[in-house]
Amino acid sequence: MKTYSIILLLLIIICSGIHCKTVRAASSTPRRTQAQDSAQTNVKDSICTTLFQSIFDTLAPSAVTPYSYTGFCNAVINWNRNNPIPIFSGETDTEKKNELAAFLGHVLHESHDFQAAREYSQCKTFTTDSVGKVYCKPVGYVGGTYTDPYCSLQHTPTTHPDGCACAPVPESTSMPGYVEADQLFFGRGPLQTSWNYNYKKLSDALRAEGVDICAAPDLVATNEEYAWISAFLFWTTSTGAVDTTCGQAVKCEGSFGSTLNVINGGLECPAISGHESTIWERLNDYCAAASALGVEEILSLDGCDGLKDQFDQCVGSGWCPACAVWEDKIGAPSTKEAQEECLSGSVSVSAPKHGRPSSSSYSTQIGMTVLSSSLVLLSYLM
Description:
- It is built from 14 helices and 3 strands.
- By secondary structure, the protein is mainly α.
- One of its GO terms (biological process) is cell wall macromolecule catabolic process.
């Protein structure tokens, strides 16, 4: 009996090592090709069946690199394939449109209608050398060592929470009067990702692709995929001081106000002196996106102190022409019970990784597990 058991186990070991295949009877239904599966996934995953290029171009007629319609659509597909917290993936078209409109309202405002790849105060004036390296002239900079205002020395590669390594930046020797962009952590991309600790989160998320954003933060201003991913990462994981992400604020609270509180609540919820016009511009961008997408009503303005008053003042003054049509179509926030039920079912991940193990790697892990277990049992039988 031991002999037969040993032979059987040897067969198991061999199969686990070489991935034995099972011969299946021919199916009367032809198998879908990889291209067909990919095409079906693209349609299913992409919010661009709702956001047409004509809408994108209307909202941002002067968009510059890294903002393009194709880049956005591809980034959404890749994000939703590779991350546990999808974006723009509500159960109904209304839910998808609501989240997309809120997202567009914020990113259009933060990026100056997709015209600002880099924060104006830090790098509106820049130059590029012969190999493409970018150098910035921050507002007021006249040379010498520059102190990055977005370098938190409390966040380092060895602290918790951590951050990209940063320090005072020397003046460039090859480009006098400028500092190297890749040594600065100012705002870049659709949501103007800033601070060395936020770049560290993005770098961790892109590690599977072999990208070190800490060493090259300016990729967020030049690479379409990384630019959009920087915004998706913030939207799905950052909570600010309100303990919910922007995505959760839309889905669970039905609130645009809470998304603003996450993004810039310290300055705009309520508005500190001088930021009223900033809120009005943001509201007008949101209303324009809502109209372009054809939502039924705009989201609640609750969740951000004073936002409804700012909305009324903006419409009344004529500064928010896109919001006038929504004056009587503002949604009510979700009930407390509905919010709690929704949040209890939400996936909570601090920093999704962009990418996942390949199927071959997974198969190898299974094979090695079977092999190890079989060897233990074989030694016992012998």
